[in-house]
Inverse folding.
């Protein structure tokens, strides 16, 4: 771990600055891309396959999780030929249930951990939380960074914590690290947190818990994608990206995918390397797919809400 | 640095997304717009205007000779004497506002025609050229009744008839830059658009008609260089406003020497875009791209020389090449096109000449992969590395998508290299450090210095050059001054 820490400090891009106006310009240029017809269908299906269908509520029940798992496997059976979602994302206590429901479907179970969503707890508790998820069979762990420590400038603490959780995940689960960018205050900080998370061993970096606003935004995602690109050039290690929260319509999802296409390219345009953390995106994408197929928009009531 | 290449070519191809041409209604033949009427050229000669993306003819354009220009200048003089100079600023402002509003109403049509005639991507004509042109009319309409406040105690007076010659790179926008302040200040206008791109200026003449602008206030004469010369040399012209090459600018200045014609010349450039190691590099790369590939590099203030601090040279070059992979070159009418067609065969030849020259000079060339259409005039975005100040591709304006890249070590070296050019139109500085920006802007001899951005234009901001890039300012409060005399 020591050498990795040093590599951040010595890393030529550790001073990487981000210009907010420039980022907005680039984003607005990408979002003006016109995605039509077959390209739209291709993009929409890709978006569906990248969804981490999520329920992270205090009111979650066994039945709610069961329904969600079924929905993940059967997005809209009347359409035929649709992908399944990438993963079902739940709290640790539902991992076992979800795992069982999804058996044989190829859909992963992702579990939030480390005192999600605030991350305000001791390392011991966070480790226990993570172990609980892993022991129940989680394929992916979505941890949160300690934003308080980050703002205090205790970057080593943040780094070590991620590295420790990664150690707990070991070969059992891929680690997605939530930066909670809505609490970081600036794009410079988003970049810094991204670098820390990647060098500490995260397999994915993720924008948000979905519990605070703003959650994922296009500018923040672009900054993180550029960090991933620099890291890839530097180390040869591919890191995944997951914007989460607030991505509830198909048009926005396509704009996110266009950011990926123009920043990182095809290698990242699969659900192995890109995910949407979303609870309501799927239905809007399905509605658009039906519109492409039939030429008409259908009522929301034709799509199942689970 | 490891050899992991990012590949931006994607299986997810964007389907063609062509802007509809159903809104436009081009005539087969365009006459001259003189004294509020559409007049046949006295020679009865016409020339073709073509779509540079397809080489297909769009329309016939009247070729104005000395007699036609004389007619236009006389019409402008009459309008000046009898109506326009007699109107209050408030009334003039109303007409100019009306033009601006009709431009907005017809924005989509203007954008499509601009793209068809000039080859620029519809994204640019739709989002930049046309809205900015309308903005100039809106902005100067506001000044029309406030000239006394713009220049307190200086008694501003209109000049008379302005002869204006615009280039082919931003046809409608340049016409707006010139006509709007001239009218706001109480002058009348004889304007000649560049011969390869007359159409939107002729549509602007239609808009003037639609706005009920008094006859003769705006006159449009079409033709090539000799028509322009007739305007420059006409005795009835009080002021020349020219945007174009430094070569022609010099001819104009010689021609009007000894006369009392006022002039503003907005000429060539070879701007340095300077990237420091502490710059936001990804956004700097975006700025480099916008600086040189905007409008196929047909931009007088294009950032055609890139100066990168040595310590980040490799990284910047890598990022730049990656970014170039995602640029889409093709049909200018496609909403996803980033780089359109070169404006004319002649210009393509010039650019290719310089690319050949760069190779002969021993510079290393980089162009992204991909095939070009056989029909039409196309040039790939091009980088040259391994060049010095003594390379001609570093010294001379190419006016195409060709970027010459050099490195520097210290601020002094950057400033020396940036200023070591006969031109002085624009420059760009990229750094996260505010004090460095102010240090640079005070030492760079350029009319416009952008900090952490490039090729940003606004009606309120003056634009113009130093040295061989010309003199006088267009835009903003300064732009009024060029169309006024100050008597006590």
């Amino acid at each position: 771990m020591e050498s990795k820490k040093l590599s951040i400090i010595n890393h030529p891009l550790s001073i990487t600055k981000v210009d907010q106006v420039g980022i907005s310009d680039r984003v607005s240029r990408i979002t003006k891309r016109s995605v039509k017809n077959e390209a739209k269908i291709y993009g929409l299906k890709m978006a569906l396959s990248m969804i981490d269908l999520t329920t992270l509520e205090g009111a979650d029940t066994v039945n709610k999780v069961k329904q969600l798992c079924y929905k993940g496997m059967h997005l809209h059976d009347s359409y035929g030929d649709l992908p399944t979602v990438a993963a079902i994302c739940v709290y640790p206590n539902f991992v076992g249930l979800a795992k069982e429901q999804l058996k044989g479907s190829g859909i992963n179970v992702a579990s939030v951990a480390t005192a999600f969503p605030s991350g305000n707890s001791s390392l011991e508790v966070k480790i226990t939380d993570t172990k609980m998820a892993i022991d129940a069979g989680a394929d992916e762990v979505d941890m949160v960074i300690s934003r308080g420590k980050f703002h205090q400038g205790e970057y080593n603490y943040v780094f070590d914590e991620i590295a420790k959780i990664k150690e707990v995940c070991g070969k059992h689960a891929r680690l997605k690290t939530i930066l909670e960018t809505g609490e970081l205050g600036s794009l410079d900080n988003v970049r810094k947190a991204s670098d820390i998370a990647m060098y500490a061993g995260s397999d994915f970096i993720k924008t948000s818990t979905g519990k605070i606003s703003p959650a994922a935004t296009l500018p923040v995602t672009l900054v993180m994608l550029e960090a991933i690109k620099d890291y890839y050039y530097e180390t040869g290690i591919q890191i995944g990206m997951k914007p989460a929260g607030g991505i509830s319509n198909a048009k926005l999802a396509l704009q996110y995918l266009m950011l990926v296409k123009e920043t990182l390219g095809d290698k990242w345009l699969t659900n192995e390397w890109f995910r949407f953390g979303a609870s309501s995106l799927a239905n809007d994408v399905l509605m658009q797919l039906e519109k492409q197929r039939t030429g008409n928009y259908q009522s929301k009531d034709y799509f199942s809400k689970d | 640095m490891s050899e992991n290449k990012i590949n931006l070519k994607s299986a997810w191809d964007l389907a063609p997304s062509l802007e509809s041409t159903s809104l436009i209604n081009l005539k087969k033949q365009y006459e001259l717009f003189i004294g509020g009427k559409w007049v046949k050229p006295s020679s009865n000669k016409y020339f073709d205007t073509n779509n540079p993306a397809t080489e297909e003819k769009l329309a016939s354009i009247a070729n104005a000779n000395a007699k036609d220009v004389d007619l236009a200048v006389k019409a402008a003089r009459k309008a000046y004497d009898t109506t326009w100079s007699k109107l209050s600023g408030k009334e003039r402002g109303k007409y100019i506002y009306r033009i601006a509003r009709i431009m907005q109403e017809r924005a989509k049509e203007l954008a499509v025609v601009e793209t068809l005639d000039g080859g620029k991507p519809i994204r640019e004509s739709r989002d930049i050229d046309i809205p900015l042109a309308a903005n100039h009319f809106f902005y100067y309409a506001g000044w029309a009744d406030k000239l006394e406040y713009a220049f307190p105690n200086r008694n501003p007076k209109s000049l008379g008839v302005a002869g204006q010659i615009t280039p082919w790179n931003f046809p409608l926008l340049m016409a707006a830059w010139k006509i709007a302040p001239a009218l706001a200040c109480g002058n009348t206008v004889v304007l000649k658009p560049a011969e390869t791109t007359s159409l939107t200026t002729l549509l602007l003449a239609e808009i003037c008609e639609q706005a009920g602008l008094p006859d003769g206030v705006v006159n449009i004469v079409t033709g090539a260089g000799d028509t322009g010369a007739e305007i420059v040399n006409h005795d009835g012209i009080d002021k020349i406003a020219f945007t174009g090459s430094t070569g022609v600018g010099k001819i104009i200045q010689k021609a009007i020497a000894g006369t009392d014609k006022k002039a503003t010349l907005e000429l060539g450039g070879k701007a340095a875009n300077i990237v420091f190691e502490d710059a936001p590099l990804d956004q700097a790369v975006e700025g480099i791209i916008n600086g040189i590939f905007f409008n196929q590099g047909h931009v007088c203030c294009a950032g055609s020389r890139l100066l990168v601090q040595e310590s980040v040279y490799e990284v910047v070059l890598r990022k730049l090449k990656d970014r170039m992979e995602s640029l889409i070159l093709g049909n200018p009418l496609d909403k996803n096109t980033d780089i359109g067609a070169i404006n004319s065969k002649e210009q393509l030849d010039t650019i290719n000449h310089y690319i050949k020259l760069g190779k002969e000079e021993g510079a290393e060339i980089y162009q992204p992969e991909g095939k070009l259409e056989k029909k039409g005039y196309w040039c790939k975005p091009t980088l040259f590395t391994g060049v010095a100040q003594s390379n001609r591709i570093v010294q001379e304006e190419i006016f195409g998508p060709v970027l010459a890249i050099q490195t520097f070590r210290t601020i002094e070296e950057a400033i020396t290299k940036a200023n070591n050019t006969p031109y002085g139109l624009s420059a760009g500085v990229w750094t996260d450090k505010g004090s460095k920006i102010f240090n640079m802007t005070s030492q760079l001899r350029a009319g416009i210095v952008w900090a952490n951005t490039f090729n940003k234009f606004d009606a309120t901001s003056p634009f113009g050059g130093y040295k061989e890039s010309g003199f006088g300012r267009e835009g903003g409060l300064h732009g009024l001054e060029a169309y006024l005399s100050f008597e006590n």
Observations:
- The interface with chain A takes residues 1-2, 4, 6-17, 123, 127, 278-284, 286-287, 311-312, 315, 318, 322, 326, 335-336, 432, 452-453 of chain B (CB under 8 Å).
